[in-house]
């Protein structure tokens, strides 16, 4: 789940440049190369690598009650800067926690794709009923791909190498 603490404005031409850089990553290539150890269900400790690169990029991760009631985690997006992931301190299995973290970092990627001015979908393929089931395209992507931790990790590493250093 994500929250915008700003009005999501239309995307500017400047944004499109960064979006096209992010779009240079080959989703298909990464997605098809995933091994069992790249999934939260098989290797939940992989989420620590996501947290480490996310922290280096400037995403805050805190333990606490998410602002949205009954949610175990949220990404609180700010206008013009990376936001904060709030994860409930309640017990959850390592696999569930890994998927929750991966889910919220998909919203971080969507925020980066919106040049930190909007949270826009990555354009990853999703089943046709997913928007209806999860409420929005952004949430549908986050739920459908939350087990694929290495996919999100590879995007974050690409961003660290290429985008924020420009
Ligand atoms: Zn979400």
Structure in words:
46% of the residues lie in helices and 10% in strands. By secondary structure, the chain is an alpha/beta fold. The chain has one domain: 2-Layer Sandwich (Zincin-like), CATH 3.30.2010. A four-stranded mixed β-sheet has the order 1-3-4-2, with helices on one face. A hairpin with a 6-residue loop joins β3 and β4. α3 (46-57) packs parallel to α7 (149-162), α4 crosses α6 (137-145) and α4 (94-113) runs parallel beside α7. The longest helix has 20 residues, at 94-113. Zinc ion (ZN) binds next to α4 and α6.
How does the SSE layout of this entry go?
Layout: E1 2-4, H1 13-22, H2 27-33, H3 46-57, E2 60-63, E3 73-77, E4 84-87, H4 94-113, H5 130-134, H6 137-145, H7 149-162
Parallel strand pairs: 1-3, 2-4
Antiparallel strand pairs: 3-4
Helix pairs in contact: 3-4, 3-7, 4-6, 4-7
The structure holds zinc ion.
Zinc ion (ZN) binds at residues 1-2, 103, 107, 139, 142.
One letter per element, helices H and strands E, the order comes to EHHHEEEHHHH
Q: Which small-molecule species are bound to the chains here?
A: zinc ion
How many extended strands?
Answer: 4
Going by CATH, the architecture would be 2-Layer Sandwich
Instruction: Give the uncertain stretches in residue-range form.
Output: none
Percent strand: 5-15%
How are the strands ordered across the major sheet? 1-3-4-2
- State the helix count: 7
- How far the N terminus sits from the C terminus, by CA atoms, comes to 29 Å
How would you characterize the largest beta sheet? 4 strands, mixed
